[in-house]
Design brief:
Layout: E1 2-7, H1 14-30, E2 33-38, H2 52-59, H3 72-80, E3 84-92, E4 95-96, H4 98-106, H5 112-120, E5 124-130, H6 139-150, E6 155-162, H7 175-193, E7 216-217, E8 222-224, E9 231-237, E10 240-245, H8 247-251, H9 257-276, H10 278-289
Parallel strand pairs: 1-2, 1-3, 3-5, 5-6
Antiparallel strand pairs: 3-4, 7-8, 8-9, 9-10
Helix pairs in contact: 1-7, 2-9, 4-6
C-alpha cells in the first residue's frame, strides 16, 4: 500500500507538519509506504481555458490537457496508482493557496485513461487545511474537490478545516489540531485495511451528501448545497433552523453517477450549440476585436535576472 501526501504550503510549514502527523498515524495503522509531494516544487502552468480536455472527454478523445511542457504529466503518473491521497493546504483569505487552485484547474485535463483507472481502482482520500484566523469558510469545498478530481470514484473518509495559527510552524503548540490530524491519518489507515466498508468518518456537516457546511437560498424555504447541489427545505424545529433534505437530490448529487452524467451531457450540449453557431460567434468576436481598447503589458524581463 502507498499513501501520497500533498503538501500545499511552505517547507515545514503548518500544513506540512499536520500532513506528517497524519501520515505517521496512518502508517502505524496499516504499515503503508509513505510519500510526500510538495506542490510548490512543481512547475505547473495555468489552465488556458481552451476546453480541449472537456471536448475530448465528451466526444471520445483522450481528455488530456494540451499543456505538456510542465510537471503535470509527472505528477499524474506519481499519484495515479497511489492507494490513498491526503491533501494539506494553508488558507489564504478564505480559500486554499493559489498552488492548490492551479492544481485543481489542471486536474480537469488529467485524461480519460487516468480517470478510468481511478474508477476501477478507487482511492481513499482525505483533506485538511489550516488558516491564520477565522477567515477559513470557503476552503473546505475547494480542498475536497481537489482530492475528488484527483481520484474519481474515491472514498473521502475525513476532512477538516481549522484556523488561528498564523505564524510559521506554530501548529506544534496546538495539541488539539495535531491530534485531529492524527485522527484523520488513522481513519485513512483503517479505510485502507477494510476498503469494503470504508466510508466518511469525519464531522457530519450540514449537507448529508458531501458534509459541506455551506447553504444557499433557492426560493421560498428551499435551500441547497452550493458544492454538491443537494437540495432540501429549511424549517424551524424546536427553535433551531434545520434542513429537511430531499432523498433523491441527496442521492443524485453532483459527485454521484447521475450527477456526473448530467454534467457531461450539459457540457456536450453547450459545445454542440457553439458548433452550430460558429459563424455567428466569429462575427461577434471580430466586432469586439475591433474595439479601440489598449492592452497594457509589463516590460520584458532579462531572463538572466529572473528568479525561479
Amino acid at each position: 500500500m502507498r499513501i501520497v501526501g500533498l503538501s500545499g504550503g511552505r517547507r515545514s510549514g503548518n500544513n506540512e507538519l499536520m500532513l506528517k502527523t497524519a501520515l505517521a498515524a496512518a502508517k502505524q495503522v496499516c504499515g503503508a509506504e509513505l510519500e510526500i509531494i510538495r506542490l510548490q516544487d512543481l512547475k505547473l502552468r495555468d489552465c488556458i481555458g481552451c476546453e480541449t480536455c472537456m471536448r475530448g472527454l465528451t466526444t471520445g478523445g483522450d481528455g488530456l490537457c494540451v499543456v505538456r511542457d510542465d510537471d503535470m504529466p509527472w505528477f499524474s503518473a506519481a499519484v495515479k496508482e497511489a492507494d490513498a491521497l491526503i491533501l494539506a493546504t494553508p488558507i489564504y483569505d478564505l480559500i486554499p493557496t493559489g498552488t492548490v487552485v492551479t492544481l485543481l484547474n489542471r486536474v480537469l485535463g488529467i485524461g480519460k485513461e487516468y480517470q478510468t483507472y481511478c474508477r476501477t481502482h478507487p482511492k481513499i482520500g482525505a483533506a485538511m487545511a489550516l488558516g491564520g484566523s477565522d477567515w477559513i469558510n470557503l476552503t473546505e469545498p475547494l480542498m475536497d474537490l481537489t482530492v475528488r478530481n484527483l481520484s474519481k470514484g474515491s472514498v473521502i473518509v475525513d476532512k477538516f478545516v481549522v484556523g488561528h495559527n498564523p505564524a510559521p510552524s506554530m501548529v506544534v503548540l496546538d495539541e488539539a489540531v495535531l491530534e485531529r490530524a492524527a485522527l484523520l491519518g488513522r481513519r485513512v489507515g483503517e479505510a485502507l485495511m477494510d476498503r469494503e466498508h470504508a466510508g466518511f468518518a469525519g464531522d457530519s456537516g450540514v449537507c448529508p451528501a458531501c458534509h459541506c457546511n455551506l447553504l444557499e437560498p433557492r426560493g421560498g424555504a428551499r435551500v441547497g448545497c452550493p458544492y454538491c447541489d443537494a437540495e432540501g427545505t429549511a424549517v424551524i424545529r424546536d427553535g433551531s433552523l434545520v434542513v429537511e433534505w430531499d432523498a433523491d437530490k441527496v442521492r443524485d448529487n453532483r459527485f454521484g453517477p447521475a450527477g456526473d452524467a448530467h454534467h457531461r451531457a450539459d457540457i456536450a450540449a453547450s459545445h454542440k450549440k457553439a458548433g452550430e453557431n460558429r459563424e455567428r460567434i466569429r462575427q461577434r468576436v471580430q466586432e469586439l476585436e475591433d474595439f479601440d481598447g489598449v492592452f497594457v503589458q509589463p516590460p520584458k524581463r532579462d531572463p538572466s535576472t529572473t528568479k525561479e
